[in-house]
């Protein structure tokens, strides 16, 4: 995540969240690998296609997407968080096309295009017999049943979440970084375990208590397929553009920046180097200098006392 922060372009960004309707969760649980891949493909194609549309930007966007699968109470809720550049590099032209500060694309257009791409991909996967439709999904195996299932989903409005990153793109990348290598719940949210079950914090000051078996079931819902990549980069942020179009976009944006009146633009200050404790706090919110018991006192570093060497044993034989 630190390396990706170094590639942030000097422009505004948008935070876009793509969520599948609850009706798709059962199918996803039976087909995690393929449905997660299709979710990434549909969401990324939606943003790239809208960016390339000459009626909108006519440019190539850059964005990073990360998969989340949980709610605060550990229920299964797969969705993608995307950090999207507020504009793009014009196709075939070294020119930056900016998006408006508070507006990327119409929500209904994003949702309808995303819905169409994902449901069409599921239809093709079903026709190619790539989906596991046994067990709880057996009723979707017949082609007519699956077509009716998709038809119901087409009638639902899929509305994404889109918000300008007022705190700045670096803060949002840090937010996403907290979830890149995490499991569904952190140790500090676990509050108690007794005869009633496991109690853990959810949102705000709220807590929930579930039976041990239910807690384990919910926790295991968020184990991803082996070697699954949950953080992916697209458009200008894709690996193939890291030393090409991304750098062209950076130079164009920097050359377009107006110098302050009566002077020249000052070079940006080099980012401060953080030690591992500061980096841990920045990414996870865990403050190792805070007393883990009282939560108010500060930990003081002191050298361990040198232990005296054990006395030599005498041979009494």
Notes on the structure:
The chain is an alpha+beta fold and 317 residues long. The protein is built from 9 helices and 11 strands. Helix 3 crosses helix 4 and helix 4 (107-127) runs antiparallel to helix 5 (143-154). The longest helix is centred in the N-terminal third of the chain and has 21 residues, at 32-52. Mean pLDDT is 86; it is low at 259-271.
Q: What's this entry about, in short?
A:
The chain has 317 residues and is α+β, with helices and mostly antiparallel strands.
Secondary structure topology:
Layout: H1 2-5, E1 13-19, H2 25-30, H3 32-52, E2 59-60, E3 62-70, E4 76-85, E5 87-90, E6 96-98, H4 107-127, H5 143-154, E7 161-164, H6 169-180, E8 190-194, E9 197-201, E10 207-210, H7 212-220, E11 231-235, H8 245-256, H9 276-284
Antiparallel strand pairs: 1-4, 1-7, 2-5, 3-4, 3-11, 5-6, 8-9, 9-10
């Amino acid at each position: 995540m630190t390396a990706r922060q170094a590639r942030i372009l000097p422009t505004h960004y948008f935070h876009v969240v793509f969520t599948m309707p609850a009706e798709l969760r059962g199918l996803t649980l039976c087909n995690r690998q393929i449905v997660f891949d299709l979710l990434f493909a549909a969401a990324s194609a939606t943003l790239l296609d809208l960016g390339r549309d000459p009626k909108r930007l006519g440019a190539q966007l850059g964005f990073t997407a990360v998969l989340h699968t949980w709610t605060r109470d550990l229920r299964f809720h797969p969705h993608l968080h995307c950090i999207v550049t507020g504009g793009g590099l014009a196709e075939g032209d070294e020119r930056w096309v900016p998006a408006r500060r508070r507006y990327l694309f119409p929500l209904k257009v994003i949702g309808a295009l995303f819905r169409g791409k994902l449901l069409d991909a599921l239809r093709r996967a079903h026709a190619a017999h790539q989906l596991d439709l046994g067990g709880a999904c057996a009723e979707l195996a017949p082609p007519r049943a699956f077509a009716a299932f998709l038809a119901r989903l087409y009638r639902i409005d899929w509305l994404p979440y889109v918000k300008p990153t007022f705190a700045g793109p670096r803060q949002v990348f840090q937010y996403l970084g907290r979830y890149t290598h995490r499991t569904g719940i952190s140790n500090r949210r676990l509050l108690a375990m007794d005869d009633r079950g496991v109690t853990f914090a959810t949102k705000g000051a709220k807590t929930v208590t579930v039976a041990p078996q239910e807690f384990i079931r919910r926790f295991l819902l968020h184990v991803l397929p082996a070697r699954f990549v949950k953080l992916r980069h697209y458009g200008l942020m894709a690996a193939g553009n890291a030393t090409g179009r991304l750098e062209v976009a950076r130079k164009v944006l920097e050359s377009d920046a107006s110098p302050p009146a009566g002077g020249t633009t000052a070079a940006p200050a080099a980012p401060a180097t953080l030690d591992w404790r500061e980096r841990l706090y920045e990414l996870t919110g865990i403050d190792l200098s805070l007393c883990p018991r009282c939560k108010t006192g500060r930990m003081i570093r002191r050298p361990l006392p040198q232990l005296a060497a054990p006395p030599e044993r005498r041979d009494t034989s």
